[in-house]
Amino acid sequence: MIGRNRSSSTRIPAWLAAILLAAPPGYVIAEEKKPLDIRDPGADLANFPNSAFTLPRGGFYLEMAPAFFSTESSRLSAQYNWEYMLRYGLFDAVELRLYSQGFSVQGSPNSATGFSPLTLDTKIHLWDEIEAYFLPAAGLEVMVQTTWLGSSAFDAGTEPSFSFNFDQGLPWDVDLEYNLGAARFQDPDDPTDQVWDFTLSWALQRDVVEDVAVFVNGYHNASNLPRIGRLADKYVRVCPHSGPCRTEELVQQYADDAANYVQHMIGGGTLWTVDDHVAVFGNIGVGLTSSTPPVTAYFGFAWTP
């Protein structure tokens, strides 16, 4: 979801807090604390990018998409996932996150049912938006997709990635969110080799009525979280750099400059904030290359106590 807390009025920067804490006795320093709600900073699973903002210290979100579907592409079988993410504010500007595609069902030719592995994720809020200088709010996100608790059919190996997350207000009450980063993928030409590549995800969002927003979004190479399958389950021909070509049943998808491998998706959705504690969302996207699932759709919710 596009981040909402673009104002720094409720946060005291660290350098200012240090000065204030040195004030003479008798001065009372109090930082205004807003009650945590689902609008601020908002659900990250609602669209493809993640916001620059973090939960306050002690804050908790549960986000879940129990209906996540992607159709068959040239490299990937159709797949169903019950994805989820747990978020916890360790400090006001540091958030710990645990993500997984959860219960997963893969279609033919290599049908499988099991669980996708856990992704360990940390997001740090760097600064708020400075509108006078047209400077977006910024955050840094670092994650590692592990092999933990994953069934063999959905084990893509250990995959680190990082991104810089930006949020910015535009004219006509439009909010822009975009993530620039890189992820490590396994080379389809040599499954023993791994290569880093650029990733981009973005969204434009606007409220249409109170508590209802619509958005368009997309990604290049991969969404910020590993939400779209990268493990090619179809039989593909691979040619290692040293050795003869061979047929491989399971090869990790690598997004390079070749049209065969690059993933591009664009789509749109809506977000309805039911009350201070619950928001529901839906998103549907279409693939623009042969390796991207032609249709990806999901529906879910976010909840905070």
Description:
It comes from Methylomagnum ishizawai. This is MetA-pathway of phenol degradation. The chain is mostly beta strands. Strands 1-2-3-5-6-7-8-9-10-15-16-17 form a twelve-stranded antiparallel β-barrel. Strands 11-14 form a two-stranded antiparallel sheet. Strands 12-13 form a two-stranded antiparallel sheet. About 11% of the residues have low confidence. It contains one helix and 17 strands. Helices cover 3% and strands 49% of the residues.
Give the uncertain stretches in residue-range form. Answer: 6-20, 23-30, 249-259
CATH topology: Porin
User: Could you give the order of the helices and strands?
Assistant: HEEEEEEEEEEEEEEEEE
Main sheet attributes: strand count, strand direction, barrel closure: 12 strands, antiparallel, barrel
Total of DSSP H or I helical runs spanning 4+ residues: 1
How large is the share of residues in beta strands?
A: over 45%
**Major sheet: order of its strands?**
1-2-3-5-6-7-8-9-10-15-16-17
Distance between the termini: 18 Å
- The tally of domains stands at 1
Question: Tell me, what is the CATH class?
Answer: Mainly Beta
Number of strands: 17
Structural class of the secondary structure composition? mainly beta
Secondary structure elements and their pairing?
Blueprint: H1 14-21, E1 60-70, E2 79-91, E3 94-106, E4 112-115, E5 118-127, E6 137-145, E7 159-170, E8 174-186, E9 194-209, E10 212-220, E11 231-232, E12 236-238, E13 246-248, E14 251-252, E15 264-273, E16 278-287, E17 295-303
Antiparallel strand pairs: 1-2, 1-17, 2-3, 3-4, 3-5, 5-6, 6-7, 7-8, 8-9, 9-10, 10-15, 11-14, 12-13, 15-16, 16-17
